[in-house]
Design a protein that fits this description.
mainly alpha, three-stranded antiparallel β-sheet, binds manganese (II) ion, 216 residues, minor pseudopilin epsh fold
């Protein structure tokens, strides 16, 4: 079965003023759309791989035939990363974290403000395109802030991506121009803590990834 772009769970303009409608439209339809199209085109060369979930493809990139390994890494990563990204944002989101994710943030980083500073700093310092993440070893409980280049997924490092922010210029340039730190600071206004808690519970229970069937 060919992979598909999941519909946005809200309107393109729903995250304004933090993220503008045009950015959301281009980002979801064109950028995410291209990752899925290119992933499917690569897998056509080895159709048996359509049986695997995108997460399974990323978990063991060395098992992917060499002629499509780079395409799967980039476009499979792009597909999985953005599928998470749309869901961990929502209109009228933000505020202080609640529930278990609030507890682990306070325990690991001291308080929410210090965590935000560390996360935003890692996002600002990621050279070129990439992502900043809160991630951890499945079932381990310990979490850390990391950044990855391009569309590399924490899944390929054996880590569970609890949540992440997209620091590619396509995520912010129309509204924030070159001011990435301003985008990183504003982004917390649209964070969906309920969905992040859902992902954190999956992480803590030892799941290696949140399989698509579990996505709500
Ligand atoms: Mn993106």
């Amino acid at each position: 079965m060919a992979h598909e772009v999941p519909p946005l769970p809200y309107d393109y303009a729903a995250l304004e003023p933090t993220i503008d409608k045009q950015t959301m439209t281009l980002h979801h339809d064109m950028h995410h759309g291209a990752y899925v199209k290119n992933l499917n085109a690569a897998l056509e060369k080895h159709p048996e791989l359509f049986k695997k979930t995108p997460e399974e493809l990323l978990r063991d990139l060395n098992s992917i035939p060499e002629d499509i390994r780079g395409a799967v890494r980039n476009n499979g990563g792009g597909h999985v990363n953005h599928t998470m990204f749309w869901r961990i944002m929502k209109p009228k989101g933000g505020g202080d974290p609640t529930g278990p994710i609030a507890q682990v943030i306070n325990k690991t980083f001291g308080n929410f403000k210090d965590f935000q500073a560390k996360f935003n700093d890692a996002g600002a310092k990621q050279f070129g395109s990439g992502w900043v993440w809160l991630a951890g070893k499945p079932g381990g409980g310990d979490v850390q802030v990391i950044s990855t280049p391009n569309q590399d997924s924490p899944i390929s490092q054996g880590l569970f991506p609890i949540f992440g922010n997209d620091v590619w210029e396509h995520a912010y340039y129309l509204k924030y121009n070159n001011r990435r730190p301003e985008y990183l600071a504003a982004w917390w206004n649209v964070v969906n803590w309920e969905e992040i808690n859902h992902r954190y519970e999956a992480f803590k229970s030892g799941k290696t990834v949140l399989e698509p069937a579990m996505a709500r």
